[in-house]
Write a structure and sequence with these properties.
The complex is a heterotrimer of chains A (316), B (290) and C (245).
Chain A lengths: L2 H22 L3 H24 L9 H18 L4 H23 L4 H20 L10 E2 L12 H24 L2 H11 L1 H6 L4 H20 L2 H5 L1 E2 L1 H4 L2 H14 L5 H20 L2 H18 L3 H6 L10
Antiparallel strand pairs in A: 1-2
Helix pairs in contact in A: 1-6, 2-6, 2-9, 2-12, 2-13, 3-4, 3-5, 3-9, 4-9, 7-9, 12-13, 12-14, 13-14
Chain B lengths: L1 H32 L7 H19 L3 H28 L4 H24 L14 E4 L2 E4 H23 L1 H11 L1 H6 L4 H26 L7 H14 L5 H22 L4 H15 L9
Chain C lengths: L5 E10 L2 E11 L4 E5 L6 H9 L6 E6 L2 E2 L5 H7 L1 E4 L11 H11 L1 H5 L5 H14 L15 H14 L4 E5 L7 H16 L3 E5 L3 H7 L2 E6 L2 E6 L1 H6 L1 H8 L2
Parallel strand pairs in C: 3-8, 3-9, 6-7, 7-8
Antiparallel strand pairs in C: 1-2, 1-4, 4-5, 9-10
The chains are: A mainly alpha (316), B mainly alpha (290), C alpha/beta (245).
């Protein structure tokens, strides 16, 4: 299927899913929970562009995500622009940080990049904690607007926004996968030295990958303040974001856009159910255990279990 | 007086650095020498701290004695962990991505398990030397920081002797440089790595005891230490003990000065910032191998 | 062109205290078939790595086809026409055999040919390359399902897909049988006849002697001989390096 056809299909799916949701879900709770799962679809897909396609592991999802969230806080306090603009700003800022991170560490081995991402998340968190304008360690309250554009109900609006973003992320991932860029990234992932020898500009491609990945994560974070209405560094930088954005593609499968989607839906819904029924700490323990289990036993994820041998992707 | 403040900050930074070296020596072995990205190392330090806490609280055992008691268990735990790591990743040559994800998962599980077991409250130990302070001129040295520093130097010194004098120790140094040559000498590199990794976890037990002597401990403080230990190991030139010691003291002083003059909430940024800068500018470290 | 295709002047490389390459100077003319020999550890692979850009040389100058290569990353050098195959094959494992060839075609050919290749052109060139190395039946297979020899051939084919002016074949024949060696030799000769300069690094003397117009010998990081193959092998220092005192 051509990339353009896939994008249209995704857009149609977004509209259909939203219509179905509006017609069938009576309780606003489902929209709340759905938002979280959709958010994880974006985060997992974003992570996988760098992790699965390029082979560089990022532990600092929380940092990029929070940059999106806190840039929204700043803009909300200064001026109060509409959410789509916040998403763009969040994406641009996070993308730039991703680029900067890459420039600092991508010349080194993957393990140093990974540790660098951890460092980045904590540095960003420390800055935010010490910045009183965004509430510092005490946190900040965001008032949701009374009515939403187009729909009236703000929760429905947030849901639609995140649904559209998820569709966008998936379409983007798929387009990357089935493009020259995707081939180059696969070569980098499989053997960076051989890729360079074959004429692939590995550093440039890695930087593109980090920027895209970071930008998407920032976009996912931009609507967060309106969703939670109270944001503080501890919750904004929660390690759960990092663990989940790694566990979901790993469990779903890292070689294509399907994996993060599957993993996010699977793990996301389990967690939404678990948080309500058992404690949230036990829920997190479950994710950690699943992560370790899958990485040891089924490293190709659910897709890998389904199709035991890694099939080659169809070429562009 | 400014100079008093400065001098105290520097001295306590050095003492703190000594302790940081104890926390990092395990990673200098596992990551620096064996090239195993054990992200979970700080979590095991915290685990060690909590074990010592339980021994101290239940049976009144002095934390240093407690450390010695739990060390063999951590050694065995290390062996088990390396076994899984080796079987699942090293054997298949997929250490890079998946090995890291594995240890990250272990880090996370350990932290959450501790939260489930002990809650998020701070825990501390009772010992005779914890409340006393040593005064030299206008420099104040709290015994609770001095004792861990001394113990740290002792432990690192012992390890250095072990590495350079014993057969196994030298085998570990050899495997860090050239595991093919080792194999040609019919020494199984995996067996050597097993011992080395278990050793690194044993040091975590001791470091944990030292930690809870210095400060009260709660499960999530392991995260602050990830940056510190990796910064120290990278800055110190990966496998080099003397380098690591220098880096640890440097970091300790930098953090101490930052905390004194800018406030303690900036401290995490110091270690992680230094780490990022080192990675960007001089990944070989101060005394590093090329 | 009167200027040599590849000019190496005073190339040096050290790893810590160990000197891997010491003041290597070499000129290779367009269309030459050059053999590079030397005992294990003499620096042959290091030289290849420095020429291809995988490693950065510490001292000296490298010029290729009129371009200064110093400081240029490996992918740029490949795009300018210097390709190498790896001693231990490094295929892209998640891609099929034919997709392995797609990579250099997508990323290099445009720079060598001047225009972006269409899908039809890419498929045609892949088919041709696979036929040359006798892998056309295995186009859709994965590298892990290939034999050692087939992987070597894929490795060479991938280097050739970059349409190089100069190809460095790094020990492509190690461990192959007599007839397999002949196959690879024939392939390299054919390549050379179509205008590609070839540097052959090998231990198999028969192959090196029959292929090379010129022989260069490295020992312990230094170039000790450079000239007619018959003369080089009779050089006493070369004999000593290989056979001992």
């Amino acid at each position: 299927m051509k990339n353009s056809a896939f994008c249209l299909l995704t857009a149609a799916a977004v509209i259909v899913i939203f219509a179905v949701a509006m017609l069938t879900l009576a309780n606003d709770y489902f929209f709340f929970a759905g938002y979280v799962v959709l958010q994880y679809i974006v985060l997992a897909t974003a992570w996988n562009v760098l992790g699965g396609y390029t082979g560089y592991i990022n532990f600092g999802t929380a940092g990029f995500f929070a940059i999106g969230a806190y840039s929204s806080v700043v803009l909300h306090k200064l001026w109060g622009p509409p959410i789509p603009l916040l998403i763009v700003v969040g994406g641009v800022l996070s993308g730039l940080v991703g680029l900067g991170m890459g420039v600092l560490t991508l010349r080194l081995r993957g393990v140093f990049f990974a540790i660098g991402t951890l460092a980045l998340a904590i540095v960003v968190q420390t800055f935010v904690t010490n910045w009183d304008f965004v509430g510092g360690s005490r946190g900040v309250y965001i008032i949701r607007p009374a009515t939403a554009p187009l729909l009236g109900n703000y929760i429905h609006y947030l849901f639609l926004v995140m649904l559209a973003l998820a569709g966008f992320a998936i379409a983007l991932a798929r387009c990357v996968e089935h493009s020259t860029l995707g081939f180059g990234l696969a070569a980098v992932r499989d053997d960076e030295q051989a890729a360079e020898a074959a004429g692939v500009p590995t550093l440039k491609l890695k930087l593109i990958s980090t920027t895209l990945s970071g930008a998407l994560m920032g976009m996912a974070g931009a609507p967060l303040p309106y969703y939670v209405t109270y944001l503080d560094p501890t919750s904004g930088f929660n390690l759960a974001y990092a663990v989940n954005s790694i566990a979901m593609p790993l469990i779903g499968g890292m070689t294509s856009w399907v994996g993060p989607l599957l993993g996010a839906i699977f793990l996301g819904t389990i967690q939404q159910a678990a948080t309500v029924t058992i404690s949230s700490s036990l829920n997190l323990l479950l994710v950690g255990v699943l992560l370790v289990l899958f990485v040891v036993v089924a490293p190709n994820g659910l897709i890998g279990l389904w199709r035991p041998r890694r099939r080659a992707r169809e070429g562009s | 007086m400014f100079t008093e403040l400065l001098l105290n900050a520097i001295v306590s930074g050095i003492v703190l650095g000594g302790f940081y070296a104890a926390v990092s020596v395990g990673l200098a072995i596992s990551f620096g020498m064996l090239d195993i990205g054990n992200l979970a190392h700080p979590a095991f330090v915290i685990l060690g701290a909590f074990c010592v806490y339980v021994l101290n609280q239940r049976w009144g055992i002095d934390p240093l004695i407690g450390a010695i008691l739990i060390t063999p268990f951590f050694f065995v735990l290390g062996a088990g962990l390396y076994g899984i790591y080796h079987y699942s990743f090293e054997r298949r040559g997929e250490e890079g991505l998946r090995g890291l994800a594995f240890f990250f998962g272990i880090l996370f599980i350990t932290e959450v398990a501790l939260i489930l077991g002990f809650g998020v409250d701070y825990r501390f130990v009772q010992a005779s030397y914890i409340d006393a302070t040593l005064h030299i001129g206008f420099v104040d040295l709290a015994w609770r920081t001095l004792v861990p520093c001394i113990a740290a130097f002792a432990m690192i010194g012992a390890l250095q002797l072990f590495m350079s004098r014993t057969y196994i120790g030298r085998a570990i140094l050899a495997v860090s440089q050239d595991s093919l040559a080792l194999r040609l000498m019919s020494i199984n590199p995996s067996r050597v790595k097993l011992i080395a990794f278990s050793l690194s976890l044993a040091t975590a037990a001791i470091a944990g005891a030292l930690l809870i002597i210095i400060q009260p401990v709660e499960p999530s403080i392991g995260r602050d230490y990830i940056g510190r230990v990796f910064a120290i190991v990278v800055l110190g030139g990966m496998g080099s003990f003397p380098g690591m010691l220098c880096a640890a003291i440097l970091l300790g002083v930098a953090e101490s000065l930052t905390a004194t003059f800018y406030g303690p909430s900036w401290a995490p940024a110091v270690s992680f910032g230094i780490l990022l800068l080192t990675l960007a500018l001089r990944p070989a470290g101060i005394l590093g191998r090329a | 062109m009167n200027e040599p295709l590849l000019q190496v002047q005073g190339l040096g490389k050290r790893f810590g205290g160990f000197v891997a390459l010491d003041d290597i100077s070499l000129d290779i003319r367009e269309g030459e078939r050059v053999g590079l020999i030397g005992p294990n550890g003499s620096g042959k692979s290091t030289l290849v790595n420095c020429l291809s850009g995988t490693l950065k040389h510490d001292s000296g100058k490298v010029r290729f086809d009129g371009h200064a290569f110093d400081g240029l990353p490996a992918y740029r050098r490949t795009r300018l026409g210097l390709a190498r195959s790896f001693q231990l094959p490094k295929p892209f494992r998640s891609l099929t055999v034919v997709q392995n060839l797609h990579v250099p075609l997508l990323f290099t050919a445009k720079h060598r040919g001047g225009a972006r290749l269409s899908t039809v052109e890419i498929d045609a060139r892949c088919a041709e390359l696979l036929r040359l190395v006798a892998l056309d039946g295995k186009a859709r297979m994965q590298p892990r399902d290939l034999t050692q020899i087939e992987m070597r051939k894929l490795e060479l084919a991938r280097a050739m897909a970059a349409a190089p002016k100069l190809l460095i074949a790094d020990e492509a024949m190690a461990g192959l049988s007599h007839s397999e060696v002949d196959d690879i030799l024939a392939l390299l000769v054919k390549l050379n006849q179509s205008g590609v300069t070839v540097i052959l690094i090998e231990h198999i003397m028969r192959a090196v002697m029959s292929f090379s117009e010129r022989l260069v010998c490295l020992v312990a990081g230094k170039k000790i001989a450079d000239g007619q193959p018959q003369e080089v092998v009779r050089n006493p220092e070369v004999e000593r390096a290989y056979l001992g005192e």
